[in-house]
Amino acid sequence: MDAANRAEEFRRRLDGAAEATEAALDALLAPTALPGEITRPARLLEAMRYSTLGGGKRLRPFLVIESARLFGVEGASALRTACALEMIHCYSLVHDDLPAMDDDDLRRGRPTAHKAFDEATAILSGDGLLTYAFDVVADPATHPDGALRAALVLALARAAGLGGMVGGQALDLAAEAAATPLDQAETLQMQAMKTGALLRFAVDAGAILGGATPQQAAALHRYGKALGAAFQIADDILDAEGDTAALGKRAGKDAERGKATLVALLGLDAARARCDALVNEATAALAETGLGERTEVLAEAARFVAARRS
């Protein structure tokens, strides 16, 4: 398959994953209470839906779906896991945008949750999405094997929590107030937690769902690690060079807040070179899975991450 056809197939699969995820999230966030729930408060549910539906590329769900597809796993198991991951991603954006954190007014081209509703409702909607994500993964509807579901829950908790995304956000906030800026190693560690951990989980989840061999799982983990690092550098470059209308969020905020980024540390040219090198690392890791042409769409995803403009 030539480069143009690979790019077209990637876009088709990305769009398909986004459409399937949107429909599944819409169903999961329906007004009807589940067994064990008492009721779903209308305003809280509205805020959860506002922050979750109708926006984003759904890259994380795509990665879950496509990494599981490598091993012939399709359908509810992969899609529900993808939805759970997207709920955690969306909750993190709601909380990151709060005045106590990044204090942003715009997300995906519209008011952030605390502006569209209020701070308390935004906080609770994030809490609801985080909790519901684990409900979805733990539900037998996701997979009949309880041990496999437990493995997914553990991996997701480790990626999202103290030693992952939440810890990375704490390090990022602490760095803004620190007397000295983070060095390169510290910045990479913080970014690997704040941004990279959920992207790594996406492909780790596919390996868990697909019963990957230890070698295949390790190779996919290396792919996810490199992809996550490339994604963050590309995001930092976009913040430095992009405009608010194209990004759908306020541009230039990293420099304003003195955030630790590789662009600030290395400059734009070196950051771009590092991003390209990470894409090469990601594609090399895929080759080590031994899955051949089946990995082409994931390789294209790494190239997309580095080249994106929003």
Automatic annotation (TrEMBL):
Keywords: Isoprene biosynthesis, Magnesium, Metal-binding, Transferase. InterPro entries: Isoprenoid_synthase_dom_sf (IPR008949), Polyprenyl_synt (IPR000092), Polyprenyl_synt_CS (IPR033749), Prenyl_diphosphate_synthase (IPR053378). It holds the Pfam family polyprenyl_synt. The keyword Ubl conjugation does not apply. Its cofactor is Mg(2+). GO terms for cellular component: cytoplasm. PROSITE patterns: POLYPRENYL_SYNTHASE_1 (PS00723), POLYPRENYL_SYNTHASE_2 (PS00444). Gene3D superfamilies: Farnesyl Diphosphate Synthase. Belongs to the FPP/GGPP synthase family. PANTHER family: FARNESYL DIPHOSPHATE SYNTHASE. This is Probable farnesyl diphosphate synthase. It comes from Methylocystis echinoides.
